[in-house]
Write a structure and sequence with these properties.
Layout: H1 14-21, E1 24-29, E2 34-36, E3 44-58, E4 64-70, E5 76-77, E6 91-104, H2 105-114, H3 116-153
Antiparallel strand pairs: 1-6, 2-6, 3-4, 3-5, 3-6
Helix pairs in contact: 2-3
Length: 154
């Protein structure tokens, strides 16, 4: 089951995963397709089934900065759907043809409120994931700062 490999759903049992699977839709994507844009309302969580998705941030109207490429089946993106104000912080673009599973925000929120155990597992997994991303960003910032300091000293 593809959902089981997504970081949000680790720790859910087969029955819980089966219920969530009933709320998913499979969507084909082609290179260049924009799945969502930075700043748009986040209406769904996405799970890569096949292909590749690039996540980028807009520096200005003409420059996009690549942040990440999602290539592994089961990888998730679009977690802004679970966090207010429910706005995407990046743009997701299809890089190679494939499929994604789409889980609507409302269906996921309904599942979480109907079964608090499911909600606790999902939100704990989300917090763990976001904390690890924050730690990675801090490490990168330290590296860039050290490089900047070396250039001033040279």
């Amino acid at each position: 089951m593809e959902l089981a490999s997504g970081y949000l759903f680790r720790g859910l049992n087969d029955r819980q995963l089966e219920r969530l699977s009933g709320s998913t839709a499979s969507v084909a994507m082609e290179p260049g397709d924009v799945i969502y844009r930075e700043g748009e309302e986040a209406e769904a969580i996405y799970v890569l089934s096949r292909g590749a998705v690039e996540l980028v941030t807009s520096v200005n109207n003409h420059i996009e900065l690549p942040v990440s490429i999602i290539r592994n089946p089961g990888e998730m993106f679009g977690s802004s759907a679970l966090i207010e104000p429910h706005r995407h912080t990046l743009t997701a673009k299809c890089q190679s043809a494939g499929n994604i599973l789409v889980i609507g925000r409302r269906a996921l929120q309904d599942s979480m409120s109907q079964n608090h155990e499911v909600g606790l597992v999902i939100m704990t997994n989300l917090a763990t994931y976001l904390l690890s991303r924050l730690q990675e960003s801090r490490q990168e910032l330290k590296i860039h700062f050290k490089t900047l300091l070396r250039s001033f000293r040279a």
